[in-house]
Amino acid sequence: MVDDVDTLSIAVAELRPALEAILMVSDEPLGAVRLASVVGHPVGEVEEALEALAAEYAEQGRGFDLRSVAGGWRFYSRPEFAGVVESFVLDGQQARLTQAALETLSVVAYKQPVSRARVSAIRGVNVDGVMRTLLTRGLVEEAGQDEQSGANLYRTTSYFLERIGITSLDELPELAPYLPDMDDLEDELASVAGLDAPAAEPGAAEPDPATPPAAAHPSSHPSPHSGQGTEPDGGTEVS
Predict the structure, then answer these.
(1) Quick one: where's region Disordered (predicted)?
(2) How far apart are CA 65 and CA 74, in angstroms?
(3) For 95-195+221-238, which CATH class?
(4) What is d(CA 222, CA 239) in angstroms, rounded to the nearest whole number?
(5) What is 2-88's CATH number?
């Protein structure tokens, strides 16, 4: 109990320095409510102090910013010093997402919650390997199961918001109109699952048993799970 009193007395006396110290050691954005519970100040005062600190750093032209991202506050290096920071931290070696992974992540972001099969149908390739990479990197997470198919659904994470520097999905650019509607994918998904084979018309000739099914009924849309449409990598490249 004595430790609690001492902690609060110090925090209340020095609100801004206390916030700076906490944010300096945090590896994730911290919300105003959580910060207020630690420093012992009302949430309103903490929010005002955070905004004042952010404005102060910007006015002074510091090498870092205090930003509100993904529902919390965190220190970031300023964009104009990105080259210097990258050179120091990465020393020229950086594992980056491939174009395939970025496209898959974009589909998940705009169509979430979405299954792997639907993402594959939109991109026209099997995305299993890329999805595993996005899951491992914490950019995508499971979001339950589809009621009809039972397939696992996926959505972006708060870490995804943090990495691209926004607080909510509402701030994403208006790109959704350029992606296919889910209704347009039903025929493709049914084709992939083999559910839309047309019924034989009366009097129609029976297919030759010696003829492979693929040759008898060529598809204008290759299956996203075919070998020809599989991503050759797991979604990460090193440069």
Answers:
(1) 189-239
(2) 8
(3) mainly alpha
(4) 32
(5) 1.10.10.10
